Amino acid sequence: MASESFAANLRSWRERRGYPQLALAGRAGISQRHLSFLELGRAAPSREMVDRLAVALDLPLRQHNALLLAAGFAPEWKQRDLAAPDLAQVTSALDYMLAQQEPYPAFVVDRRWNLLRANAGAAALVTFLLGAVPSGSVNLADALVAPDVLRPFLENWEEVAVHFLRSVNADAVADGTAETADLLRRLMAYPGVPPLSSIASLESPGPVVCFRFRKGDDRLSLFTTIATLGTPQDVTLQDIRVESFFPSDANSADMFRAWANVAKTP
């Protein structure tokens, strides 16, 4: 029954967020008794009530839709392909961000680090390290953590990997989806990956964790920023991230500028 499915989902999310019933009831503006009845399946929620609880639980749009479905209502938030015509302004903005980052790398990825698009600086970095840009679908999380892609070129791979895995673990806790949990399990299963319990004890000596790449006698040192779209009203758009790489020393900046100049030469 829909009420039972909703009740189980509501209780699961409240426990995941760490709220006692009284605290969540206060956030949602309802009585603890009413919330208890909803969690036991003794009361059926209205659509407005589902929305209030989703907001109080700070659910991502995808999980907000799932809670509505569990209660027997149609989803509220659309999920469109990034190539959809009504997302043209957004894709134009993403292309602008990628172009503005040149000659340094920038990648557009979804919540599970599947590559959606990249700029010329990103292609130059990948070509330098791997010899060519991979064809087909690419997952940047696998590329970083797997033993045979980027790992051989990262002098501080373990430091980078544990901080990255910490962020994936936080995503798995926040969005509560099987897909993100599966991604984390897949990454942790690669050989040589330290357990999550060891991550907290590893600290970077600098203000940010740098990717220290080395190939032959050439070295690159880069740090990254992550940007998201503000106030999204589409599931796909809420999942999008733009990861931009910046050089952390003059030598790395010079290498990217040199690659860009070579690419411009007829």
Describe this structure in words.
The protein is α+β, with helices and mostly antiparallel strands and 266 residues long. It is 50% helix and 12% strand. The protein contains twelve helices and five strands. The chain has helices at 2-17, 21-28, 32-40, 47-56, 61-70, 88-101, 120-130, 140-145, 157-175, 178-188, 235-239, 250-264, and strands at residues 106-109, 115-118, 211-215, 218-228, 241-247. Strands 2-1-5-4-3 form a five-stranded antiparallel β-sheet, sandwiched between helices. Helix 1 (2-17) runs antiparallel to helix 5, helix 2 (21-28) crosses helix 3 (32-40) and helix 4 (47-56) runs antiparallel to helix 5 (61-70). The chain starts with a helix and ends with a helix.
Class from secondary-structure proportions: alpha+beta
**CATH architectural arrangement of the largest domain:** 2-Layer Sandwich
Mean pLDDT across all amino acids: 92
CATH class of the largest domain: Alpha Beta
Main sheet: strands, sense, barrel: 5 strands, antiparallel
Total helices: the number is 12
Shape summary: elongated
Give the gist of this structure.
With 266 residues, this protein is of the alpha+beta class.
Keywords:
266 residues, alpha+beta, 434 Repressor (Amino-terminal Domain), 2 domains, 5 strands, elongated
